[in-house]
Amino acid sequence: MEGGFKSIMHLSYRNFRSIPEELCGSERHNIEEIYLKENLIHRLPDWFLVRMGHLRFLCLAGNMISSLPDAIDRMVCLETLDLSENALHGLPSTVGRLRRLTKLLLNGNSIERLPLELGQLQQLEVLEVRKNRLTTIPIQLAQCIALEDLQVDDNPGLWSIPTRLFALPALNYVSAERCNLFQLPYTINATTLCFVLLFSHQQSLTHCPLALERFAQPDYESMEQKVKRIRNPPCYRQIRCHAVPYLLNLPSALVHLCDRHSSAGILPDFLFDTALRACCGRLRWDSLDELDMPRYCKDRLINGPVASCSSVPCGKEIFTTAVLALVKSKEYAHNFIVSVLFCSKLCADRWFQYNCDAYDELSWEIPN
Predict the structure, then answer these.
(1) Cα angle value 99/103/108 (rounded, 5°)
(2) pLDDT digits (tens, 9 = 90+) for 310-364
(3) What is the pLDDT of residue 271?
(4) Which of 47, 130, 165, 199 could serve as 153's disulfide partner, Cβ 3.0–4.6 Å?
(5) Where are the strands (E) in the chain, listed by range?
(6) Cα–Cα distance measured from residue 90 to residue 149, given in angstroms and rounded to the nearest whole number
(7) What does the DSSP assignment read for 141-180?
């Protein structure tokens, strides 16, 4: 460390049982990056958090850390934090105060839930939480407007990913393979999203929304395999498609569903949906608690619309009411069911007028 240059300290593979205190020597302020990978470290000591608060990069992958201290927020300069392959069961809420953090790597732990405060990380670009025990992804992550890369593979208890995450303005890569997703989003940011890996070993998926069809492998057969499907969680409703021997999962928010051939194909414009369209995206999440409204209304505003009308150029937001169409691409030999949502029979008919050569329509019904 000469001439005031910043330096990197490599202390990996040393069998350290604790972080060596020589790190707090007189030259510690020249260190910007520390690698302590594959040691036997159990915790982050207080002195380290205080004296090394200037670090930009900290790699503690492959240790035995079971928890982070609340004082982790003292490391205000951190841009990359790698805690992969440890024994973490969760994170303190104070992680949300690491406002410069751009990469958070948590693969190979035992994390059951992520703190809601991660939504405060406005500069976060990469979040990796593969091989953990997650059952949900907090909707607050939709406030991480710089997020480009989201990896949550191998969380077998994970049921869904909030739709709003797929609409983030910079999102480029999403991977959630070998989970148990029951539902995929109907709306995505088609401008930036280039890589979507959601289909491998998903025994609970029953169909693919039109927005994600281009990311599904043409030879994908899981949806028609003779497997024992996992019991449906209570947050979904189901319909029966005559082309397959199992029920299809749809969001429970879709209270009013009809197909374009029924007499109810012309749906009324419910006042509730109109109000949601007027408010959604115009109210700050942290101000919703100040409003005296039912929890259901608040949740719908936070979660946003289920979809946008698939008929171009309509794009009307869909919250609780939709015309549903199930189709099968004529290019596929397998029963790969694609679901499409519209705001009205008129939009559905218009879409089929332009896509009848590419898709066969499938019949469906709501089971008794």
Answers:
(1) 125
(2) 999 999 999 999 999 999 988 875 668 999 999 999 999 999 999 999 999 999 9
(3) 85
(4) 130
(5) 7-10, 31-35, 57-59, 80-82, 103-105, 126-128, 149-151, 173-175, 195-197, 208-209, 236-241, 247-251, 256-258, 307-308, 317-318, 321-329, 337-342, 359-362, 364-365
(6) 21
(7) GGG-TT--EEE--S-TT-----GGGGG-TT--EEE-TTS-
CA distance 206 to 245: 11
What is d(CA 120, CA 98) in angstroms, rounded to the nearest whole number? 9
How far lies 159's CA from each of 136, 178, 191, 235, 279, in Å?
7, 11, 26, 10, 28
Q: What is the pLDDT of residues 174-219, one digit of tens each?
A: 999 999 898 899 999 999 999 999 988 777 888 999 999 999 865 4
Maximal CA-CA distance, the chain: 80
Which of the listed ranges 28-32, 160-164, 227-231, 284-288 does the model predict with the highest average pLDDT? 160-164
Whole-number Å distance between alpha carbons of 310 and 363: 18
Give the pairing of strands 103-105 and 80-82: parallel
How many C-beta neighbours within 10 Å does residue 196 have? 21
Residue 226 has pLDDT above 50, yes or no: no
Integer Cα distance of 319 and 4 in angstroms: 57
Say how many C-beta atoms besides its own lie within 10 A of residue 303's C-beta.
Answer: 17
pLDDT at 220 > cutoff 60: no
Reported pTM: 0.91
User: Do residues 208 and 217 lie in contact, with contact meaning Cβ atoms separated by under 8 Å?
Assistant: no
What SS3 class is residue 200? coil
Q: Angle at CA 181, nearest 5°, toward 199 and 343?
A: 90
- The single-letter code of the amino acid at 33 is E
